[in-house]
Amino acid sequence: MTGVRLSAEAYQVPTDAPEGDGTLAWSATTLVLVRVEADGHTGIGWTYGPAAAAAVVTDLLAPVVVGLDPDDVPAAWTAMQRQLRNAGRPGVAGLALSAADCAVWDLKARRHDLPLARLIGTARRQVPVYGSGGFTTYDDEQQHRQLAGWAHEQGIPRVKIKIGESCGTEVARDLARMAAARRTIGDDVELYVDANGAYQRKQAIRVADAAADLDVRWYEEPVSSDDLAGLGLVRDHVLPDVAAGEYGFDLVYFHRMAPYVDCLQIDVTRCGGISEFLRIAAVADAAGLQVSGHCAPHQHLPVAAATPNLRHLEWFHDHVRIESMLFDGVQPATGGAAPVPLDRPGNGVEFRADRAERYRVA
Ligand SMILES: [Mg+2]
Asked: Could you tell me the distance, in angstroms and rounded to a whole number, from the CA of residue 196 to the centre of ligand 1?
């Protein structure tokens, strides 16, 4: 019994420009950082969401891990998961659990002086990424500059833009922005779109048909991800792969969704952490599906490296920017793949509290 201490902080960072998608707009992003300490070592994990997740960590999760052996990651996960029964696993509590589990994994790797990717085991040394941004709030020039940066400067062969503007009421602009994106990236870069659940079922199919000459390869949340039958309907009627799963907070969510999509998106900072990510990837595999990591790219890299049926990882503009600002050790994804951190103990990054302090909100 060594004494495991969990703590959490929250930092709200303004975006570099107004950001929005089909169903939401925002001007700041909150990072909740979890630390777990034992034997003089500290592990870190993080999520993006309300600062209230930090209070869930300190009030609910910290007391149930204090007496555990810090190497017993499944014991910690199980204790924390059970503790959340009455708080509700999906939502803020799930964010807290996810960041805490990532921190517990990181602590174990650091205590044993191992890269986290080495502790979990790797299926690959480079993780394919796609550039993600193309917010509906961008003007033509902003979109062009961002996509050209990924496709032509960084050599990333896949890029994604947001569509479904104003809850699906601006389809003409959606199609014009998709066409502009194709002109920017040329014929050799894959074009992805994300409607964030903004369209109705038949509308989503009509949009895909109208964009047929743009060779879209990835159609994310064409309808609400709560409408499983709708996702299945769209998948069966369009050529791009239909993907969803970013709001999945537990294993059962993905088990239910798997029959209706072409690719499951898992977010390690929402789904229950690295422990649950690995189980969800197995559920996807059993359904014949690949998985894609959603956002928080540097929190995903070790588990993405460990997942045989991983397709790629979302290199989300907002989070890439924040992680580059607040952590040392982040690497670029030049050429379309991010290197898996294998030369340092733990997850490969160090939080810079000195640089983050001005953004602290909890
Ligand atoms: Mg999305």
From this structure: 6
Kindly tell me the sign of the dihedral angle through the C-alpha atoms of 225, 23, 320, 88: negative
63 CA distance to ligand 1 centroid (A)? 34
Question: 247 C-alpha to center of ligand 1: Å?
Answer: 9
Q: Ligand 1 mean position to 171 CA, how many Å? A: 18
What domains, with CATH codes, occur in the chain? 5-112+354-359 (3.30.390.10), 118-350 (3.20.20.120)
3-state secondary structure of 102: helix
CA of 96 to the centre of ligand 1 (A): 20
CB 318 within 8 A of CB 291: no
Question: 0.90 exceeded by the pTM?
Answer: yes
Backbone angles phi, psi at 217, to 5 degrees: -105, -15
186 CA from centroid of ligand 1 (Å) = 23
What stretch of H or E contains 12? strand 5-20
Per-residue model confidence as pLDDT tens for the chain (362 residues): 459 999 999 999 999 999 999 999 999 999 999 999 999 999 999 999 999 999 999 999 999 999 999 999 999 999 999 999 999 999 999 999 999 999 999 999 999 999 999 999 999 999 999 999 999 999 999 999 999 999 999 999 999 999 999 999 999 999 999 999 999 999 999 999 999 999 999 999 999 999 999 999 999 999 999 999 999 999 999 999 999 999 999 999 999 999 999 999 999 999 999 999 999 999 999 999 999 999 999 999 999 999 999 999 999 999 999 999 999 999 999 999 999 999 999 999 999 999 999 999 99
| Distance (Å) from CA 152 to ligand 1 centroid | 23
Residue 337 Cα, ligand 1 centroid: separation in angstroms?
20
